[in-house]
Specification:
Elements lengths: L1 H18 L1 E6 L3 H7 L5 E6 L5 E4 L2 E2 L3 E4 L2 E4 L3 E9 L1 H23 L10
Antiparallel strand pairs: 1-7, 2-3, 2-7, 4-5, 5-6
Length: 119
């Protein structure tokens, strides 16, 4: 039973970390991008006439966004989303996982009783 609880906890933790990352749309004007994007941000950029690009930002300068060997000029940015952590979702999933583990262990330890009426 303990082994199962460990696996449930491990799988739950992996799911919680994956489920708590969200992509948030950002304004596409140059001033906002220069102010809001930071090195290390993971972004997906929609470009005019091209496929979407996903990469880690290394820098933003007067010409555009740079990262992972990619340069996207500001004039090509039609849409941009940044990966962010949703802390309320993380807490909710962690609480649900903890409750599930408590229920599993309580059910296992509740005995079973059941001494009937002796008919």
């Amino acid at each position: 039973m303990r082994k199962m609880i460990r696996w449930v906890g491990f799988v739950g933790a992996c799911f919680a970390m994956a489920a708590c990352m969200t992509m948030q749309s950002m304004p596409t004007d140059e001033a906002s991008l220069r102010r809001d994007l930071k090195p290390g941000d993971y972004v997906t950029v929609t470009r005019s006439g091209h496929s979407d690009l996903s990469f880690k930002v290394e820098g933003v300068d007067k010409e555009g966004i740079h990262g992972s060997g990619i340069h996207v000029p500001f004039k090509e940015v039609q849409g941009i989303s940044r990966e962010e952590t949703s802390w309320w979702r993380t807490g909710l999933i962690a609480a649900a996982g903890a409750a599930a583990i408590v229920l599993l262990t309580t059910h296992k330890n509740s005995g079973g009783g059941g001494g009937g009426g002796g008919w």
